[in-house]
Amino acid sequence: MGLRIVQVDAFTSRAFGGNPAAVCVLGAAAEDGWMQNVAREMNLSETAFLVPGADGFDLRWFTPTVEVALCGHATLASAHVLWHDHHIPAGATARFHTKSGLLTAQRAGDGGWIELDFPSQAAAEQKPLAGMLDALGAHATYVAKNVTDFLVEVRTAAEVRALRPDFTALRALPIRGVMVTAPSDEPAYDFISRFFAPGAGVDEDPVTGSAHCCLAPHWAGKLGKTSLTGYQASARGGVVRVSVAGARVKLAGQAVTVLTGELTT
After folding, report:
1. What per-residue string of b and e applies to 180-204 under the rule 16 or more CB within 10 Å gives b?
2. For 124-246, CATH number?
3. Is there a shared CATH topology between the 3-116+252-263 domain and the 124-246 domain?
4. pLDDT digit string (tens) for the chain, length 265 residues
5. In this predicted structure, what is the pLDDT of residue 110?
6. What fold does the segment set 3-116+252-263 form as a domain?
7. Residue of 35, 29, 100 lying closest to 71 (CA atoms)
8. Which residues lie across from 106 on neighbouring strands?
9. Does residue 262 have an active-site annotation?
10. Residue 201 vs residues 109, 119, 136, 150, 198: alpha-carbon distances, Å
């Protein structure tokens, strides 16, 4: 009998939208090299590995090339799998022990929405790295950086959608990723964004929960509101509802199972 693995599209209500993640619930901790090999085999932006414990689950995330310290969409996918596959009761809070501390997930009303409680990762204004804006093809109105990523604000949503970055040039820079954002031109959303992380093995991430830990405080301050809705304008697209509460950010999204299988080795 193989080890069950589930592929989930996160931050979307429809299959083949949002950001796909693989989720594997283990009976015991696995070797790092094996988890990295599985993530490389799955070839998704993230593969999540969970190990049950006395007070929740240990959770780790791997891209095809590296382990990361925080991932929103694979956490959303993990919570979805825990409830769907009956690892925890339907009404229970999912608790995750991670490299970014304790994260939780709760079901949030109708429509299959799941709300994550994450640390805020606000950015402070900083000069762009040499060559970064040229590699993005962006005309920035504001540049900032948090502990892992750059935030680049541009004037219009159309500019965000039109970006065609030079990923080879971005990959050469000493950064994990860059989010590019602008006010939304659609009334359903407050802001839009895209996220590029070729240095972490993902040229463009379809929907990035961790980036919204930075985008949420940025746009909350600019727009004067604590609850907002963001649209990540990748080819797959995805919706993230955010709420800022001090040092924490609530991220809400939907999720859909698209594939189940077994690892045989």
Report:
1. bbbbbeeeebbbbbbbbbbbbbbeb
2. 3.10.310.10
3. yes
4. 689 999 999 999 999 999 999 999 999 999 999 999 999 999 999 999 999 999 999 999 999 999 999 999 999 999 999 999 999 998 899 999 999 999 999 998 778 899 999 999 999 999 999 999 999 999 999 999 999 999 999 999 999 999 999 999 999 999 999 999 999 999 999 999 999 999 888 999 999 999 999 999 999 999 999 999 999 999 999 999 999 999 999 999 999 999 999 999 8
5. 77
6. Diaminopimelate Epimerase; Chain A, domain 1 (3.10.310)
7. 100
8. 115
9. no
10. 35, 24, 17, 17, 5
User: What tokens were used for 179?
Assistant: 């989010």
DSSP string, 199-229: GGTEEEESS-HHHHHHHHHHHHHHHT-SEEE
Query: d(Cα 62, Cα 100) in Å, to the nearest integer?
Result: 14
Catalytic residue among 46, 115, 153, 204: 46
Q: Which two tokens stand for residue 133?
A: 């804006």
Q: How many CB atoms lie within 10 A of CB 82?
A: 23
Question: Comparing C-alpha atoms, which of 4, 13, 8 is closest to residue 239?
Answer: 13
Q: What residues does each domain of the chain span?
A: 3-116+252-263, 124-246
Q: Which amino acid is at 250?
A: K
- The tally of CA atoms less than 13 A away on the side-chain side of residue 263 is 19
pLDDT of residue 22: 98
Residues contacting residue 112 through CB under 8 Å, at least 6 positions apart: 13, 254, 255
The Cβ-side half-sphere exposure at 47, using a 13 Å CA radius, reads 23
Alpha carbon distance 174, 181 (integer Å): 21
Nearest CA to 6 among 77, 103, 87, 97? 77
